[in-house]
Structure prediction request, 340 residues.
Amino acid sequence: MKTSFYTLVILALLGTSACSDSDNSTDSSAAANDTSADSGSGDDASDAPDDTDSNQVGPNPDYFLAAGLAENITTTSCTLTDGTTTQCYKVVINGAPANAEIGPFCPSNITDDATEGGIWFDGSGEVYPLEGQFFVDVKTLYGDDWELYDEDTGEIHVTDTQVACEAAARPNVAAEYQNHCVQCSISYYDGGMQQTILIPVTPVPMSNPETIGADLGVSLNGVVIAGPAPVTQILAANTIAAFDDCGGHVNPAEGYHYHASLGCSEVVTTIDDHANLMGYALDGYGIYGMLNADGEEDYDLDECRGHEDETRGYHYHAASAAENMFIGCYQGAQGSIALN
Prediction:
């Protein structure tokens, strides 16, 4: 994986927040004063939150990486999707991951190896490395009407300008940008689009699960966690909307975001062999990796891909990238995500 990330080893997975629910202006993130791309709780594991006496139900703002935040995490009054008025954490992100480079996405020639490109998944159960050979084999995968490269030069058709990116990364792809590998550069959008995420300090369970939206949460390294990629619409235009090795890509409407769990945001490591924390859903419940330390998936997940234990309370586990999803639904009333 073409990334490096910093791991915060904690003595207990969920610690007491440094933020008071009644204080709407106090800095609630130790991370906010650290300008490095390390964990907000410091470089040394001894500085990590230690809550061996009690467990916290709900997000811990100290776990966010400082470099992914545009401002200190605070609390504010909010109204959830079920009408509940409560306190939410206000998390303002820069729009770029704190601990990883964005890209690469599309290779330029059919002779390129996997290091020159990212990945592609279509929900069929496969994750394809975007090496040059993939573009040669795509006819076998999707049909004879796919022409993603120049047969004389081997050059792959790539949206390598902002005009091309914005013409292709939309439901109605212009004819001249069909049969392209679609990529957009974060540089087109000032290095990232700031977004504000409101997450309840204390999750509010619902009696019935609710369908996830286009965006469903936020990662600890400061990236929006999105719902399934619209692969049916993408393939209908004979395009491949490339993801990088972290499962993210740049959308002209909302910037860089994740469509798959590939470990880049798992910056909190557990000591009880449980899967690592990657972020929080809009309902305030934690989203953890798919596999535990033994490489096994939990077998007792509900329809939302969640379950409960004594340490973490209710929480979710992300699906594999091949499934084109993180979680299946919400079990709690949700806050919101909005572009700044």
Q: What stands out?
A: The two ends are 31 Å apart (CA to CA). DSSP finds three helices and 20 strands in the chain.
